[in-house]
């Protein structure tokens, strides 16, 4: 399947959201609850952003898509535990609630649909706020993440479209360990991650020395920040990310833009304003325009302060819109 150029008459930013996508979460009051999408949509609507994008409904996923990244045994395990709705899928973070298999597959299916839309030239930018579940490993759940939609999208882009260089950029406060270790020895996956130092925050990984293994050595960039780091430290790190991406000339860029680095998140210890999210998105859009036919897919990721979710993701969406208007 080949890509085509963008139709100038089509809206240039796609937003995937809806009630069925909202359901991915673990109940009212949980840090990853079903109200996270609502917090973003209200803030974006208050800023007039929702009137400036093309709205798309969530898309059902299937086991085949999940198995692009995850092992057969793991997908079967999630399906069984989802039917029972008892216990946890991991050591105690990710509940095996009834229906979580189907809800997680919907996140996967929606992220894949967004990537397909960009590859077909229906738009240059897309945002899926309830996605970016970057902790799930190929064979295990972790940190509220059941299926790793980012990993699935990367595998899908390479198998379906033959892309040779896919960039994954992560500015969530937590290290994107599921993606990193899922592609640690794969030189075709260009990985850049700015996060709170793993010595102080889950999942405890992402040291600067982790730059890829074997043939992939040098294709990964991890930049841990000290607790309390703010915008200044982010912008210093981001300059490294820009140089790194430019040197690899990616054909598609996937951004995980978790809102938990903002000051006031109840789980993390960074102190960003919304400027890093805005700046990173505009920067990646420029890089995507130079090397990737404009293809930039943003996924929401983490974030547990509802006001911060609205602030950070609205900054991302505003930057996606602005980058197309420039």
UniProtKB/TrEMBL annotation:
Keyword set includes Nucleotide-binding: no
Biological processes annotated in GO: acetoin catabolic process; epigenetic regulation of gene expression
Keywords of the record: Acetoin catabolism
CDD domains per record: HDAC_AcuC_like
Pathway membership, UniProt: Ketone degradation; acetoin degradation
Signal sequence residues: none
Keyword DNA-binding: no
Top-level taxon of the source organism: Bacteria
Positions of the Histone deacetylase domain: 30-320
A single GO molecular function term of this UniProt record: histone deacetylase activity
Pfam families tied to this protein: Hist_deacetyl
Recorded family membership: Belongs to the histone deacetylase family.
Protein name per Swiss-Prot or TrEMBL: Acetoin utilization protein AcuC
Organism from which the protein derives: Natronospira elongata
């Amino acid at each position: 399947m080949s890509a085509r150029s963008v139709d100038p008459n089509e809206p240039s930013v796609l937003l995937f959201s809806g009630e069925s996508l909202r359901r991915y979460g673990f109940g009212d009051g949980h840090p990853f609850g079903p109200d996270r999408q609502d917090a973003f949509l209200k803030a974006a609507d208050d800023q007039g952003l929702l009137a400036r994008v093309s709205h798309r409904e969530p898309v059902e996923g299937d086991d085949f898509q999940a198995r692009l990244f995850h092992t057969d045994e793991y997908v079967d395990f999630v399906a069984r535990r989802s039917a029972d709705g008892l216990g946890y899928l991991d050591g105690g973070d990710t509940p095996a609630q009834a229906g979580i298999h189907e809800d997680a597959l919907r996140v996967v299916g929606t992220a894949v649909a967004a990537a397909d839309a960009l590859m077909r030239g229906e738009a240059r930018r897309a945002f899926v706020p309830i996605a970016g579940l970057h902790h799930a490993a190929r064979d295990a759940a972790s940190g509220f993440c059941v299926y790793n939609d980012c990993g699935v999208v990367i595998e899908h882009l390479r198998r379906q479209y033959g892309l040779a260089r896919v960039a994954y950029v992560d500015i969530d406060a937590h290290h994107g360990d599921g993606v990193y270790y899922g592609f640690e020895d794969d030189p075709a996956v260009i990985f850049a991650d700015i996060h709170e130092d793993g010595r102080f925050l889950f999942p405890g990984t992402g040291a600067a020395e982790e730059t890829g293994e074997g043939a992939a050595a040098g294709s990964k960039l991890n930049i841990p920040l000290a607790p309390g780091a703010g915008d200044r430290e982010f912008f210093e790190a981001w300059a490294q990310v820009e140089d790194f991406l430019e040197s690899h000339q990616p054909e598609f860029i996937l951004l995980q833009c978790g809102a938990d680095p903002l000051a006031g998140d109840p789980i993390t210890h960074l102190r960003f304003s919304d400027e890093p999210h805005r700046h990173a998105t505009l920067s990646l859009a420029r890089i995507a325009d130079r090397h990737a036919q404009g293809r930039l897919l943003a996924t929401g990721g983490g974030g547990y302060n509802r006001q911060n979710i609205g602030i950070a993701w609205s900054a991302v969406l505003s930057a996606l819109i602005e980058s197309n208007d420039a």
